[in-house]
Amino acid sequence: EAEHLGSILAALGKRYDLVTVAEGAARIRSGRGRSCVALSMDDGYRDNLLRLVPLLERHGARATVFLEAGAVAERRLPWLHALGWLEAQHGAAHLSNRLAELLPEHRAALETCTDGNRLKRILKYDADPSERDRALDELLDEACADRRAIVDALYLSVDEARALAAAGPVELGGHTVAHPVLARLDEDAQRIEIAGGRDALAGVVGDMASATFAYPYGRPWDWDAASKRAVESAGYASAVTTIAGVNTASTDPYALRRWPIHAGSRLHVLGTEASGAFEWLRRLGVELVQS
Question: Which residues, 6 or more positions from 107, have their beta carbon under 8 angstroms from its beta carbon?
């Protein structure tokens, strides 16, 4: 995957400046400078330091890493990784049946669930977050799971986060405390997640002046107008979604678009998006990426 990303950076770097999200947003506001591409990574995994930084240095690129404060600063195991660890131990079908016992209001959906992706969607959008977390905690206790060891294996340590902050090619941004679906929270709870995440990270890596923010999950139904207000009031200069597209002077700085990159991403498709060629299709109501 690193080799694939490297080939993408090498190709895009021939035509665009490879910048951080904050730098790209500033160029959009000023209307000056060469066209640019901003690479960003969510959550704050250890490979952002161990593999991403050397890759950026080789290609003369910069990037933004959005840190999940609960995991990085407080060493709290996020529910998605609790779910992933339990699924690896028991399998999706068995885990769904156990969760059906603990979440009886979703028994019908869970008892017929044999697919990990469907299970994740039920817990993400249908189950009450506090009840979901209680159920997962009970199963982790039953399995004698070492929560801290799971976090340490995946996420940057405090020292590693500081090393990443000091790395020349990287800027850090915020990504809430516990990575919730913000649109499912009331406005006060959203403020706690967003501002609290920034405060927790500031305690680790120092002041994050003019930092940017990434909405967890980032699709149109995952955040709302209250999310944008909370991000702005927390002092973030801009925010990114996971809605595909290019950003221009008319783009809301608190709803910046991002194109998802994965192992199967094709360079010619990324280049077409970066050039803005897909925008006319979107104006006709045709979306090739978002689902």
Answer: 100, 101
- Tell me the pLDDT tens digit for each residue of 88-120: 999 999 999 999 999 999 999 999 999 999 999
Tokens of 5: 């990303």
Question: Are 99 and 131 within 8 A, CB to CB?
Answer: no
Beta carbons of 164 and 172 less than 8 angstroms apart: yes
pLDDT single digits (tens) 206-261: 877 668 999 999 999 999 999 999 999 999 999 999 998 889 899 999 999 998 88
Cα separation, 42 vs 175, in Å, equals 8
DSSP 167-230: STTEEEEE--SS---GGGS-HHHHHHHHHHHHHHHHHHH---TT-EEE-SS-STTT--HHHHHH
In which order are the strands placed within the sheet that holds 63-67? 17-19, 36-43, 63-67, 170-174, 212-214, 238-240
